[in-house]
Structures are given as structure tokens and as C-alpha cells.
Amino acid sequence: MGHQETDSMRRHAGVSILSILLILSKIPSQNRKRILRANRWRWNAPTLAFLIPSWMAGTRLRSFPTTRIPPRLSTRQPHLSSNDTLLESLPKGYRETMELSVNLLGLYGTAAGQKPVTVTEAVQMAADDGFSVYDFPLANPTFYDGDWRREIERAMNCAAKNGGVFRYAHVPFLFPWGDPSPGNWARFERLMSFAIEGAAMLGVRWVALHPYTTNEPVASYDAGLCRDAALEHLRPWLEQADKLGVHFAVENMQGDAACHPHRRYCAKVDELIELVDTINADWGGGHGICWDVGHAHIAVHQQSEALKAVGGRLKMTHIHDNYAGADLHLLPYTGSIDWGDLIAGLKAIGYDGDINYEMNLGRVPSELRPGLIAYLRAVGNSFIAALQ
Fold first, then answer.
1. 196-207 pLDDT, tens per residue?
2. Are residues 231 and 167 part of one domain?
3. pLDDT at 342 > cutoff 80
4. Are 264 and 224 in contact (CB under 8 A)?
5. 65: cis peptide before it, omega within 30°?
6. Does 39 share its domain with 111?
7. Helix (H) and strand (E) counts for the chain?
8. Regarding predicted confidence, which is higher, 7 or 132?
9. Quick one: 197 exposed, middle or buried, by C-beta within 10 A (0-12, 13-18, 19+)?
10. Are residues 187 and 66 in the same domain?
11. Could you give the count of Cα atoms lying within 13 Å of 139 in the half-sphere of its Cβ?
12. Could you tell me if 87 and 117 lie in one domain?
């Protein structure tokens, strides 16, 4: 990196900080205190310890891109409605079109043997950490053991209170292949129906959906038969989604490295595209693709080329890392995914959705979470900055 680019980045950081201070100075003190409390992750020691050395070294990792303002200052946040005039006067580039999203119980859930965290509690923890876009865990079978509709209402109220929004969800995907009895299939189908109803209650934009996949032996694998079986399986869910205004994003599956000696349908990009195009042709459009970066790595895809084939069908992402052998759901840069290639692919197709984390971090001790959250935000913001 040249001296001119480094100096420019430092000037931009200074401009960003001055812009934030200018905005805060014009906001009534009561709201200003609330904003600072809500964004306290930005000022804590782990955040500064991570970000200041990066800035001084002139790296490309930026926490405050000059074209963005902190999520809590976005015009989407209802608690700043009295300051809409101020925010309207800001340069157009400050408007957020891409944000960080988190799968709530993946990031804020607990390890086995610990007291479970409710979705509402996870929403509050995410809001306290500065996240305002959420992926609702509708895939969790135990979620439906209690009054799940009431819990959705509580979670929505909590999100609204904190200026957050549910934009994504995931329907159940643990097909009962281990014991495919009529009773187990009936339970799975009941949970699927509940999840689609829940997605409609939440008003999410996109719902991740695994295609019907039976892990067929490689030697006898027939993509055409798998496609027909998937379409037959999905028909009742597509009917319900159509009635309720729910939009599916069909997810790419893991590759042979994780399933050998079997193969999963839609691990190949052409199979995924064909399935989604057929669904849209039969149901009048409205459905798309969820690109799971970890699954794609296991399937040995060059992410950029695969995404170019997917094109405008891409509606949501699942961001996590692995070593191309198992679906580990690691933090970015802690596995072997080529993140530069992924960003190049997203940029090539003009992706304008969110960076949606899907991780399993329940075992991380609470005292280590501030540094972890700071890292996730810094990495996510660097992805967003590269894409805008």
C-alpha cells in the first residue's frame, strides 16, 4: 500500500469521526446518551485494541467507512425519528444499503448444559452489541415446544424498541432420515408449517430453505430424480408460502467431501439454479438463492465463478469459514476460504443484500465476547466497504 493511499485512509477516518461528532452534537442530549450507550461496543478497550493498530499500520480494514454512518444513526431507526431533518441533510452516500446481520442463537446461544437463551434475550444482546439486523432461528425444533407465537411477538417488540429488524430466517432442515417413520415425518411437516407461519408474522424478506436431499450414493446419484423429488416435497410449503407472502431462498448444499460416499442434491450450482428457476416458473417468481459460503467451499467451488452463474437470483448469504472438509461455521479468516474471491464474485453480480453471519459460538465465554464482537464487526464492515 502506498503512502498516498495510507494518508487518504487516515484522512477518511478523521472525517468519519468528525462527521459522527457533528451528528451527535445536533441530537438532543437524551437521544445522544441513548445512542452512545447502544454503540458502546465501538468505544470499549477490545475494539480500540483491535482497530487502532490496524489503522496506524495503514491496513485496508476500516471500522468507519466514510460512506456509512453507524447503524444506530440510520434513518431506519425509529428512536431518531425526531432528527429526520438532520439526517436528510447528510450526503446521499451516508444512506445504508447493506448491513451486518446475525443469526441470533448461533451467536448468542449457549453451550450444552447451560441455561438456554430465549430469542428475545438474544435480540437484546445483539442490540447491545450494536447489531440491528437479525436472522430469526425458526429452524430450531425446540423453539416450538412452548408458546412460540408469543415469543415471536416478544422478540419483535424487543427489536422494535432497539431499532432492529428481522430480515432473514431459516426453516427446519433436519429431515428425519435416521428414523423416517410416519410420526417423525408428520412432526417435521408440522414444524415446517409453523416456521412458514412464523416467517409471515416476522415479515422477513427471505427465508433460507434446504432442498429435499437424501444423500444418495454417488454411484447411483441421479440429479433429475432428486429434482423431481425436491419439487414434490416442496409443493405444500410453496403453496403455504404463496398464501402468506413468504419468499424462500434455496440454499446450496455441502459437497462430497462432507458427505462421501454420498452426494447431496444442489451441491452443484447448475442443480441449484435449475431447481430455483423451475420453482419460479411454476409459482410465478418471488423465490431466490441463499449462498452458503461454507457449503460452497466444501463443494470446491470457485466462489466468484459460481456467484456469477447465480447472478441476480442471489438474495441472502450465510457467512462463515471452514477448511473444506466439514461444516464448522468458523469466524471468517480462521479457515481456508478465499474471502477476496468471494467479495469479487458478490461485487461482480451487484449483490446488494446484507452480510449475514451464520456461526455457532455458544461455547465462547462471556468475558471473551467483546473482542469477538469487535472482530466480527470489523471484518463485516470491511466486506461491506469493499462492496459499496
1. 999 999 999 999
2. yes
3. yes
4. no
5. no
6. no
7. 15, 10
8. 132
9. middle
10. no
11. 18
12. no
